[in-house]
């Protein structure tokens, strides 16, 4: 595997981790934290 591909995969997995963290945080935000 080329080094560029490895970096792309690392970047992609980091992005997916970030998206997953944002999703799970959004799932657990108490309703009083959501601006009305």
From TrEMBL:
Name the record gives this protein: Uncharacterized protein
Organism expressing this protein natively: termite gut metagenome
